[in-house]
Amino acid sequence: MADFAVFSIPQFDANEYANAVLAGEPYPPVDSKPPGKLAVSPQDLPAKEDISVAISKLTFSIDDVSKQIKNVVATHHEALLSQAANAHGLSGSLTSVRGGLNDLDSSLEKLRLKIRVPYQSLQANVSRLQKLQQASDVLRRTSRFVVLARRLQVQMVDMDDRSTAQGSADKPARVQISDPTGTLAPVQDLEDEKERTIAKAALSIAELVALLDGPGAAKPAAAHGRARGPASEEAVTDEQGVPLRSINAVGAHVSFIEEARAKVTNEMEGMVLTGLTSLNQSLLASSLQTAYNLRVLPELVQNLILDLSQAVEERIRSAFDLTKISKEALAKDSTIAASSPQSPPTYRSRVRTEPTNVTAPQFTAALWARLEVMSEDMADCCIKVYTLEKVLKMKKDTVTQALFLDEAMKVLENKPSATFWTSLGRSLEKHARDSAKSSTFLQQTLSSGYPKLLRLFHEFFAKIAVHTDTVYSPIYQSPETVLVLRALSNFESLYLARSSTKLNEAVAQAFAGGVRAPPGSTEGVNIARTVANELDSARFDPLLVMAVAKNAVSSVGMMLSRVDGMVVRDRSAATFMGPTATPQQGLNAQLATCLYECWSRLDGLKRDHSPAVFDALKPSIQKMRQAYEQLVEPLMTAVRRELSAIIVKLHRIDFGKIVDPMSDMGGSSFYMKDLVEKLSFIKTEILSKFAIGEEGRTWVISIVKYVMRTFVLHVSIARPLGESGKLRLTSDMAELEFALSAFMVENPQSKRSGDLETIGDEYRALRAMRLVITRLNFHEGGLTGFCRPLLFLENSMLAMPERTAGLPPLIVLHHILVRSPMPLPHNLHGWQEAEYVRWVDEHTAREAWTLIEGGLSHWEKVSESEGKDSAVAKEYIELARTVLQNSQRS
Fold it and tell me: Which domains does the chain have, with CATH numbers?
């Protein structure tokens, strides 16, 4: 097949092939490769040869191809014959199909003729009808337009007449403004009539504009508001495509409508401004009705809010503008200098934006004056916004019943008040931050004078509270007020930083001396006073005072950590060995005094501040109280332990031994001398170092009560006890009473002793055991008799409550057991006297009675089992049981 490759090329041309053979050139040419086809390889191209040879090759090739065709036909003759038969049958089918198609074409042509003619006729009629309807609509709109135009003319004339009448009526009204006879009523009626006329004219103008611009352009006209008027150069066609402005009868009224619209718009804007300025809700409602009739209410409200926000922003920018402040301050300074001719002229090089030490007061005064003006302007604008919003909420259109606020919200993202507050907070925050960054003077003045700045905003909130729903009180703060105050957060942060520095400096100064000069009463008072002063400075603002309270909590925590590091907790702080107090005890006393003074004064802040503020301080105050108690409690425990150890020495004395009456019976026992000396040491060397006021008095009473209670308990279990021992104990009691009375004296120079009657039950118990004779009145029997003290009572009197008045039942029980042969509770259980007294202090009276009852029962059982004669002890057992029964009944 390679010999026939040249003839199989799609672009094969017999004439070009013959010309190539005659010319002896290859075919096809080498440079004529067909696009998209592979070029024929050079070996496939016929070589240059003679014509006779080429003809012979062509003849041979033709014969060869003919043979091949014959062979193919011979081989596939059956398939070729069947294909020929099929083609013949298919030609018959194609003939029938062609006939059907011809019939279909003829039917389609007939159907087209039946439909096309009526359709063309209908189309012509519809077109004619549309033109008639269009002409009718134009005529209707033109008629309506002419009627409205004439009505507008009448309304405009009426409006002019009422304006003239109102102007003439204003003059006598101004003169007789305070006349209560009703002179102002006609003027008010004229104003109301004029407002209604303007609203009607606005409605007519809006309808005329809608007719001029067509229904399709009514919405765009309303959307553009005042920017689009009936006098626009390009007239908008109606939905039928016929512009009403092209009609001569209509075009003659266009200029009048333009003038009327401009006049009504001006009147409406004047009414809005007057209503906002005077806060006249009635006038404002009339102007908003006019704007609604003009289809410009949303745009009007949006522009008003934007104008008020911009006015506030401009005032804020001006208040923080240091250039204007410097000009105003220097201008006042120049005026003062010019008014005093004696002062020499001073050289002024240029206007300074930062004050000097000389001009700082003038700059500060100018700044606060501008801030006061800013606060007043902010209040005025805010009241106007809320008045506008209030009218929008209440006012509805009388025809459509559409709420004006809903109409305004079509273009507003939020309520007018919310939009204003957001803009106010953003502007205030921006200019306050920028001014603080650009001017050191403003930063220092407003941060140090932040309470004064905050008071200006309190006045601002108070002014607007009457007209708005904003609340700023210690109980509740409206989100709007918090938003505004957050704008001043940079100044608040600086103020709080300074306040924290003052508190920390007070603490650092108190502990500056370290261990050698520990803080005492003065330092504690200074710290508490600093905290109180800072809280009082911020007391007027609920948010600021809470922030200052947090700083105070931090400073108190630092103070407690410093105290904790200085406290001495080793044995030297609770030892009473030397003739004087140890330095460690003096150090702890100073620290305790500092904590007490600071705690007591801080605890008094609950009378001056709100519960929320005190609740913030309360945990720190309680921690300070706990630190104070943890500091003094080991010392008080050591005092009780030391005194108890001395009192227990009385058990070393044999009170049952008979002593010569003429011997030294007037002197006190050795343990009592030690006790008196120790009490004197505790008072002069220990307690005197604590300057804690009434708390010290409480300590003294507590120690006296403990000594009396412990002494009475030990005396009640002293065994054996004879008559000489009783007299000796009586002498010791008198010495103890005198020592305790001296211990309670606050002023050493005072000659009066302490009032032991204030001690209560402990002192009455001591007196009941000491007095040789006491006069008692028996009210029930009406008798007057004498009663001996407990030590000298007969056995039969021990169970009489009137004979043992003032003594606890446990003491009487102890004394009964001391007189009896029965063992005392501590002897029965194998305790020491000090252990038993400690057990009694730690348990209730009923538990002590139960312990004695158990001892009595045990004695009875042991006596019965051992066969002892219990007749002697029986009397004391009955006495003890009687005392127990009386005590349980009482």
Answer: 2-75 (no CATH), 314-337+358-487 (no CATH), 491-647 (1.20.58), 653-711+718-767 (no CATH), 771-890 (no CATH)
Show Cβ contacts of residue 698 under 8 Å, excluding neighbours closer than 6 positions.
none
What CA–CA distance (Å, rounded) separates 268 from 284? 9
Q: What is the pLDDT of residues 322-360, one digit of tens each?
A: 888 888 877 765 555 445 445 454 444 444 567 788 888
Find out whether 24 and 55 touch, Cβ atoms under 8 Å: no
CA dihedral 562, 566, 570, 575 (to 10 degrees): -120
44: confidence class by pLDDT, cuts 50, 70, 90? very low
Q: Which two tokens stand for residue 678?
A: 């120790």
**pLDDT value, residue 239:** 45
> Which range, of 106-110, 243-247, 438-442, 621-625, averages the lowest pLDDT?
243-247
State the pLDDT confidence band at 777, using cuts at 50, 70 and 90.
very low
**Contact by Cβ (8 Å): 419, 388:** no
Span between the terminal Cα atoms of the chain, in Å: 144
Task: Determine the Cα–Cα distance for residues 470 and 484; give it in Å rounded to an integer.
Answer: 12
Contacts of 38 (CB under 8 A, 6+ apart): none
| Pick from 459, 446, 448: nearest CA to 487 | 446
3-state secondary structure at position 396: strand
Q: Which two tokens stand for residue 606?
A: 């609950």
DSSP 127-167: HHHHHHHHHHHHHHHHHHHHHHHHHHHHHHHHHHHHHHHHH
Instruction: Provide mean pLDDT across the span 486-493.
Output: 90
pLDDT per position as a tens digit, 139-173: 888 888 888 888 888 888 887 777 676 665 555 44
CA distances from residue 443 to 325, 355, 437 in whole angstroms, order as listed: 14, 13, 8
Instruction: Reduce the secondary structure of 844-890 to three states and give it as a string.
Output: CHHHHHHHHHHHHHHHHHHHHHHCCCCHHHHHHHHHHHHHHHHHHHC
pLDDT at residue 2 in the model: 67
Give residue for tokens 């009456």: 661
- Note the pLDDT of residue 143: 81
Alpha helices in 570-649 (DSSP H): 583-603, 611-647
Burial track 693-711 (b if 16+ CB lie within 10 A, e otherwise): eebbeebbbebbbbbbbbb
pTM of the complete model: 0.69
Give per-residue pLDDT as tens, 114-138. 888 888 889 999 999 988 888 888 8
Mean pLDDT of all residues in 60-79: 88
Residue 267 predicted with pLDDT over 50: yes
The one-character DSSP state at 784 is: E
List residues bridging with 784 in a β-sheet: 777
What per-residue confidence (pLDDT) applies to 795? 66
Measured CA to CA, the distance from residue 769 to residue 763 in angstroms comes to: 10
- For the chain, helix (H) and strand (E) counts, in that order, are 30, 2
- CA 148 – CA 212 distance, rounded (Å): 12
Cβ contact 773:731 at 8 Å: no
Residue 279 gets the label, from left (phi > 0), alpha (psi -120 to 50) or beta, of left
- How many Å apart are CA 417 and CA 412, to the nearest integer? 11
DSSP 281-327: HHHHHHHHHHHHHTT-HHHHHHHHHHHHHHHHHHHHHHHT-HHHHHH
Q: How far is CA 739 from CA 11, 109, 679, 791, in A?
A: 147, 146, 8, 21
Q: H/E element holding 785?
A: strand 783-787
Closest listed residue to residue 535, CA positions, set 593, 601, 623: 601
3-state secondary structure at position 692:
coil
Q: At what angle do helices 322-339 and 360-394 cross, to 10 degrees?
A: 130
The number of angstroms, rounded, from the C-alpha of 98 to the middle of its chain's C-alpha atoms is: 92
